[in-house]
Amino acid sequence: MSHNISHTNPVEPSVQTTHHSRAKLALALFTSPKAAYEEIFSRTLLGTGLLFVGATGVLFCIRACLAASVLGPLHYFAVGRYNPIAWFGLFLLYAWATQKLLKWVGTEIEFDRLVTIMGWAQISLAIVAVASIIGLTPSLSGNSAKTASQFIDSVSAVLQIAYVVLIGIGINMATRAPTARGIMTYVVVSFAGTIAFGITYGNSRLKLFADALPGIAGMAQQVAASDGTPWLAAAVFGLYLGLRDLGRALGWTNNASLRTAISAALVGALGFGVYLLLFLQNDFYGRLINAQRDYELGKAAHAVKELKSLLPASKYASAGLILDIADIYYISKKPALARKYYRRFEALVNQARLTKDEERKQLARPLSGIGAAYDQEGKYEPAIKMFDRATKLWPEFRDPWVRLAVTYNRLGKYTKALEYAEHATKKLKSEAPALYVAMVQAYACLNNRSAAEKAYKELRRLDDQLADRIGKTMNEWRTATAKLTPKDLKFPLEKEVVPRPERASRRTPKESQR
Q: Looking at the domain assignment, is residue 17 inside a domain?
């Protein structure tokens, strides 16, 4: 493509009597973007634009490292995407793809000019990085300013939109194509990159954890979010394609363009190799898979050991892993250890800065777990107290209502057991098999054969093997809850822990306080 084609570069810059400083031009991009781009084009400030790209990559790398210092070592792997080499390579890849897509829709633009436009627009993203670093400062000192953080998030969102708009305006100035075309072209390229390198890759890794314990699945999501492998690999191609085409657009010889592109790609490939080696050495995916496999094979001690080794890796994921450890101890009939880890999770919730509503919901889960551990030890009164607290904190949470029905059966208080069982079935639409075991026993002990048979029929529909285990006669049903194993009572008791909104029954304030 010729470097000097008037039909693709219709802007004829006026004679500049004054050259503004680069700082003023950067400010003018936000106040008078068309005038700013006109001067940038006339002075051929490509090099400055590339410096902005590199500086933005450095700032985002600093931001990623600061965030990891707060969140845990796992999150340092986000540097795979947020480092100057990957940032520059992805920038060139997006520019290369944007040029090709613009040409496909009928708008031609020289690659060096498009790179200049996108490079200067990165000032907006540099400000986002600086704002994010400022927002992380309170977290580093152990403080948290929620209002300031929300303000910074809002400003950052606006500036990210401004980045795309500035690209659209620059393309309009360079080609006279509609600004919307430039914006939409870049948006399509950006979305395609996010889908390919982020969503598609992440989902392919997370498929292995579709049926994993909640904490393991949660940590797998954190690993996938930090995994920069596909982004860094894409950056290597971006360095080659972008520098090759940029050299040609600047009039370099073909050999010089290729040598520069290949050299840069080799540097990127070296960085990718080092990153991949470190990522594989830590093997977060493999360790999580091993923990889940050991859990499924009944090797509780091995699963717990692996999960404990993963606790320091991520502040975000550690709470979920702590619940998994507590649940595994419960299933392994180690109620004291289970209670210890439920209490540990409870402490984390109390330390977190959550809304009142969210805090209540988060606390209901460990309280129900503590109650289950007491129930397992035969300490029924403390268990009931824990379950009652959980129902008051989160009335829609089905788990403690079901466990109350089971525990009251163990105490021989069958009318009370049915009271909670009926609330769980009628108000919360629960279909937990353990709930119907409790109902079968309560009705049998109250000599209500028809109701017991009806409950047994529902139990058989939900879990045929459990129905066989509790027996088929009234005498066998009178000891039904004693035949429940820890696995029958493991968390969650059913897939949906609360009723669906459209199925939730209305409750009076009095009922909500039960």
A: no
- How far apart CA 369 and CA 366 sit, in angstroms, is 5
CATH number of the domain residue 371 falls in: 1.25.40.10
- Any idea how long the chain is? 514
Q: Do the Cβ atoms of 481 and 448 come closer than 8 Å?
A: no
Q: How far apart are alpha carbons 346 and 386 in whole angstroms?
A: 12
Domain extent at residue 362 = 308-392
- Flag whether 87 is in a domain: yes
Q: CA 126 to CA 157: how far, in whole Å?
A: 13
**In 403-456, at which residue ranges do the beta strands (DSSP E only) sit?**
none
Q: Which of 373, 392, 411 is the last residue of a domain?
A: 392
13 pLDDT exceeds 70? no
Residue 428: CA count within 13 A, CB half-sphere: 26
Q: Summarize pLDDT for 347-388 with one digit per residue, the tens.
A: 999 988 888 999 999 999 999 999 999 999 999 999 999 999
pLDDT at position 20 is 85
Structure tokens at 32: 């008078």
Residue type, 26: A
427-458 tens-digit pLDDT: 999 999 999 999 999 999 999 999 999 999 99
Same domain for 226 and 208? yes
Residue where one domain finishes, among candidates 375, 392, 409: 392
354 and 446 in a common domain: no
Supply the pLDDT for residue 511: 43
Report the predicted TM-score, pTM, of the whole model to 2 decimal places. Answer: 0.86
Mean per-residue pLDDT, 269-285: 96
Q: What pLDDT is recorded for position 349? A: 92
* 166/59 same-domain check: yes
Q: Number of structural domains, the chain?
A: 3
CA distances from 122 to 49, 61, 62, 192, 353 (A): 8, 15, 16, 19, 34
